[in-house]
Amino acid sequence: MLRRIEAIVILCLGIGLLIGNPSSLLASGTKSSASEDSISYLLHRSGDDMQKYPQYAFNSARQALDIANRLGKADLKAAAARYMGQAKLNLEDYFEAKKYLSDALSYLGNENPTWKGDILFYLASSNYYLAEYEESNLYYRQAIEIFEKKGDKRKIAMCKQNVGLIYHELDDFKSATTYYKDALTLYQEIDNDTNTAAVFQNLGLICYANGEYDQAMKYLNESVAIYSDLDDAQNIAVSYSNMGLIQLSRMEFEKAYGSFRTSYEMFESAGYKLGKMWAMYNMGTANLQQQKFDASEDEFKKSLRMARELSSPEGVLSSLQALTELKELQGEYKDAFYYFNDYAKLKDSINVLESKERITELEAIYTLQDQGRKLSQSQKAIAASKKAIDKQEARNIVYYILLFVIVMISVIIYMAYRKKKSEEVKMHSSKLDLENVLLEKDKELEAQIMERKIAVESDKLKSAFLANMSHELRTPMNAIIAFSNFLREPDLPEPKKEEYLDHITSAGDSLLHLIDDIIDIAKLESNQLKISIGPVNISRMLRELKKVFLKLKTKNNYSANLVLTMDKHYDYIVNTDVLRVKQILNNLIDNAFKYTRRGVVEFGATHNEDGLLFFVRDTGIGIAPEKLGKIFDRFQQIDSELNRKYGGTGLGLAISKNLAELLGGKIWVESEQGMGSVFYVQIPANNFRKVEVLPDPNTSSRLVTENNYNWQTKTILIAEDEDLNYRVLDSCLSKTHARILRAEDGESAVRICSQEKVDLVLMDIQMPQMDGFEATQKIKSININLPVIAQTSFAMANEKERCIDVGCDEYITKPLDLEKLLAIIQKLFE
Questions:
Q1: Is-above-0.90 flag for pTM?
Q2: Is the separation of the CB atoms in 58 and 45 below 8 Å?
Q3: Predicted local distance difference test score (pLDDT) of residue 408
Q4: How do residues 727-785 score in pLDDT, each as one tens digit?
Q5: pLDDT value at position 750?
Q6: What is the pLDDT of residue 703?
Q7: pLDDT given at position 338
Q8: CA distance 347 to 340
Q9: What is each CA distance from 655 to 645, 684, 685, in whole angstroms?
């Protein structure tokens, strides 16, 4: 059966510009200070940027709030918070909008300036979008009272129209109609044609919901007439879409098709791509009702293609469902199955993503709160345990004294009334009983002491970890800050500059590695670290690791030799997560070098009946037997004297253990103190293949160094909004003699590519105006052969796939590996 198809329904919220004069927000009748003038200027700028650049508007208002906080003036704080809330509302961040607008009301207290109504209006709108209709209705009514005192009919009408929207959402059509008509009367009194037409749209939808199709068409025709006078193509298209919906309900399929066709043309004229997508979808629906299957299929496929280009999950789902039903009607069940399969996968992924995002948010908040609570509980438990042990010791002493007295009395009684032999037997028996009691009490006392010791050790371990983490973070930061200041010396020799820069780079690498470990352990704690499985050439990966550690060996003056043991004739290929396998081996090899001052560090992989077995063997200091059971526990390294000698946070092996288990495998160690260690990692060999050794694609017949790059005939466009990031790239590429152009946002990048001869684009993904995804799509539509390299700070699992999907040729994450970047550019130029 065909499901009911609905056309585009756009409810006009009427949240217009309610931006007052910021200077009026300052206390009148007094001479404003320089700080107050700064607030007035910042709020003016926020108001100017509010509609087109809401993020900039928010930043300006936040600066104003900082100054107002220093002045301690409630009215200025309220004004700044109001603008911050309005900006968040325009950015569709409704939770944050509600927060700042509520703050603005609390700053005002019982004061009632004229612009308090605007705060209530925006707060009501935030609650509306959050589906908190009762609160929204209350705030709109409070705003109406203020606007009525001012005699501001336009704002009263907007509030009434939005109250009508609330009742519309709640299916209380009678109340909704009453408020819509009140708003309509006010808009007509002040000749506000745009909002008058919007209310006609709302009334038309109410009549449609009630089955009053003739009256609904009348209202929609009136809205079309007004929008035609205003030359508003987009809203004319919306009206025709809703007319088509009514005509579908009347079974007037040919007329409905004509209305949807007109809406498509009007959306195209207005340049509204999302509207075009839905209009095409509705055209397919009208043709399907007439059993024009070929035309309907063509239109549904076009709407599906548009939805994917616009990244509209709702559009993709609707088109896939419509195609499923179409193929079902035609009896083409195989095609229907494929469309339905795509539909089900997408729907499930959307539901899972929404759930995961909410769970992640709640877990992050809970974790922050829980950490402090657990530490406090641990301290209280230790104190309680100590107190209990002290009390128990006192009770034991009293008990022993009493017991001794009882035994002595018993002995005296036995000596008086029994024979000597009988008395000796009794005394011996009493002695045995006493020894047993003492033995039991000793065991209880030992258990209590052990529990206390464990609690103290746990607290000591956490405190030591925090102290060590502070040290590990501050050490590279201290080097970066100190050597950066040394570079400011005017007469510093060039060799010293190179030395200091090497120190800064090394410290930065250490800091980045530490941050990666902290992020990984946090993800593992919250079960957010995911595995991405794909084909991996294990042999090639091991050869790459050897190259990396040979460079580190030279750089860090490691004296131990590095040996790779593997099959020389065949490459091993399995399905696994190459990033996580590399991370495990990196940790193990790095530890091996750290604790092996001389001798050999050997690593490799073999295939056995349980899967793929990796090993890292060293001839270093080894591990004491009592430490083997704890070596993979978090923070254990800091409980050792080795920490002061070798450094580290104690996270590497714990992370490696968790990653191995996530891959479906395990990790263990064999070691003898003073004789070295062998770490083993066993993972499943899914889809294992052996192939003859493949040539390494990263190996070139000639080594290209930075001095070999000469791109003086090339033009490279750097699309980057951050000045510091741009300067890094410009400094790197200037040595290649290439012509460098810059675009500070996506729109500028597209414009430059359409006007200039550009040979390659370095595209930052996160930019204002237009992000890198959209900019790349437009650039590729201009010149599909123009290479684009995506550069992003978001090294998420699906980020690379998304960049490639929009047309990027290569992908690199920040902080940038400049040598790797130059090699990628050279490859694309070749």
A1: no
A2: no
A3: 60
A4: 888 888 988 999 999 999 999 999 999 999 999 999 998 888 899 999 999 999 999 99
A5: 94
A6: 39
A7: 83
A8: 10
A9: 22, 19, 21
Burial of 578 (0-12, 13-18, 19+ CB in 10 A): middle
Write the single-letter amino acid at 439: L
Distance CA 508, CA 510 (A): 5
**3-state DSSP call for residue 686?**
coil
For the chain, percent of residues with pLDDT exceeding 90 = 23
Share the mean pLDDT of the chain: 78
State both tokens at 34.
């320089």
* Residue length of the chain: 830
Instruction: Read off the pLDDT of residues 383-395 as tens digits, 9 standing for 90 and up.
Output: 555 565 555 555 5
**Which residues have C-beta within 8 Å of that of residue 25, sequence separation ≥ 6?**
40, 43, 75, 76, 79, 113, 115
Q: Which residue has the tokens 């399969």?
A: 341
Identify the burial level of 352 via C-beta atoms within 10 angstroms of its C-beta, where 0-12 means exposed, 13-18 middle and 19 or more buried: exposed
Backbone angles phi, psi at 704, to 5 degrees: -105, 120
- Alpha helices for 250-312 (secondary structure H): 253-270, 273-289, 293-309
Mean pLDDT of 356-364: 46
b/e per residue 404-419 (b: at least 16 CB within 10 A): eeeeeeeeeebeeeee
CA 105/CA 456 separation, integer angstroms: 49
* Whole-number pLDDT of residue 680: 96
Side chain identity, residue 775: A
Buried b / exposed e over 223-254, threshold 16 CB at 10 Å, is bbebbeeeebbbbbbbbbbbbbbbbbeeebbe
Instruction: Using the predicted structure, report yes or no on whether residue 87 has a pLDDT greater than 60.
Output: yes
Residue 590 to residue 426: CA distance in whole angstroms: 70
Helices (H), 190-232: 193-209, 213-229
Q: Which residue has the tokens 């980020």?
A: 799
Q: Please work out, in degrees rounded to the nearest 5, the angle formed at the alpha carbon of residue 362 by the alpha carbons of 358 and 366.
A: 170
333 C-beta neighbours (distance < 10 Å), count: 11
Task: State the Cα–Cα distance between residues 162 and 143, nearest whole angstrom.
Answer: 12
> CB of 586 within 8 A of CB of 709?
no
Q: What confidence tens digit (pLDDT) does each residue in 491-547 have?
A: 778 777 777 676 677 667 666 656 666 666 666 666 667 787 888 899 988 998 888
Q: Do 611 and 682 meet the contact criterion of CB atoms below 8 Å apart?
A: yes
The predicted structure's pLDDT at residue 344: 82
Structure tokens at 722: 């951050």
788 and 812 in contact (C-beta within 8 Å)? no
Contact partners, residue 469, CB within 8 Å, separation at least 6 = 649
- Distance, in Å, from the CA atom of 167 to the CA atom of 383, rounded to the nearest integer, reads 59
DSSP 628-649: TTTTTSTTGGGGSTHHHHH---
SS3 623: coil
Please tell me the least confidently modeled range out of 57-61, 147-151, 447-451, 724-728: 447-451
CB 50 within 8 A of CB 70: no
Pick from 223, 317, 232: nearest CA to 278? 317
- In angstroms, the CA 80 to CA 65 distance is 5
Q: Using omega within 30 degrees of 0 as the cis cutoff, is the peptide bond preceding 815 cis? A: yes
- Distances in whole angstroms, Cα of residue 711 to Cα of each of 708, 788, 822: 10, 17, 11
Confidence category of residue 359, pLDDT binned at 50, 70, 90: very low
d(CA 467, CA 516): 19
- In this predicted structure, which of 57-66, 165-174, 333-342, 433-442 has the lowest mean pLDDT? 433-442
Q: How many angstroms separate the CA atoms of 118 and 139, rounded? A: 10
